[in-house]
What we know:
Elements: E1 23-24, E2 31-32, H1 40-46, E3 57-64, E4 71-76, H2 82-94, E5 98-104, H3 105-119, H4 126-132, E6 136-137
Antiparallel strand pairs: 1-2, 3-4, 3-5, 5-6
Amino acid sequence: MPKYYGCPCEGCGRPLALTDDIVVCPDCGAHLDASEPCDCKDAIEREPPKPWERLKLLAVCREVDKESGRVSVYPLDLEITSEILASLKMRAQFNPELRYFTTTTARWDRYGEVMAGILKRRTVSRADLDNIGGICEI
């Protein structure tokens, strides 16, 4: 650990040399003696685990106006189920001006403007979707 050499030892105060064994806690980065356990593990174990939030899917529609060619992108206010996905897929097959995509609500909240900007382009390829990341076509 080159960044610790020359720093004072927390135990005795003398500068650390190249011949000293330096142990660093992998969790908090504190300098430890060779056999000393770190106190941070006790603090980490005492914290209650945070509950995992279930990711919620969001359907996004890309619609091209037949007359003007204007592209609109908007999220659909639907609870996503397998039946909804099947009906959106079928609807897109019969209406070539409609394309549907799925992403998570958290990702849309954070990157929705960027995603919408890319989806509003005249053409959207598979490579464009891969560059966005976190979104897939239904």
